[in-house]
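Quick question: what would this complex look like in 3D?
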Amino acid sequence: MSLRRRSLDEEASESINVSPLIDVVFILLIFFIVSATFVTVPGVEVKRPEARTAQSLQKNSVLFAISERDEIFHAGARVSLEEIPRLIETASKNRPKPVVIQVDQWADASLMSKVVAKARRNAPSVSIATRKSR
Amino acid sequence: MIVKRHSPKTEEAEINVSPLIDMVFILLIFFIVATSFVNEIGISPKHKDSTQTISDSPPLSFELPGSGRITRNGSLIQLAEIAPIVRTASSGESQSVLVKVYPGARAGLATQVMDRALLGGAKAVKLTPMAR
């Protein structure tokens, strides 16, 4: 009798207690759900210009990129200047989102200003992405 | 003995959590993959009621005629001079600055000019594309 009871007890204690694991996984899950913003990156690598007055920009924004060859990119595809208001409209749905323009430092400045002017009509704010100057 | 036999039954009635863990793990992996941490820093050349400001007083303007030059009223200036010019011109109330960009000017230079103007205390910076 006593022998049987011991074996039952041991079997019960041998199974791993998964509740702390579930706790940790849930916490991680909640963290990632909260921090998920789902921004669509422009999909082109640019060398940002330096700026001293740079401030951190809003995370949930519509991104555009202007490459070194003066091409405008949005969500991994090349777009034209005329498409910008429509793209902002689609990306922001019912809540207006700010626009961030990642511009290459060797891109044409007049194109950049045209993009800024276009985006300004549909977005609450337009910013230019920069990097910290050393 | 009957009581003894009942106790294993209560153990069997425990909820099986493995499907729950599976599902939670799938969700976790989905969110880890889908999350993209875009941490951009940048400048926001904000301008409020720009039409009014321009009509009231002509704003400070800088021209970028291309090939890396910066001019003000036709005379060549250096990048380092912009912040002091804006600071002197504003004298008390902050001024809005107009950056006129001609085709051929580089975006890096235009951004630096805006940056320096903001450093000098400009209230707003406006980019204007100019036709050659």
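Answer marked as accepted. Helices of chain B lie at 2-12, 18-34, 50-56, 82-90, 107-119.
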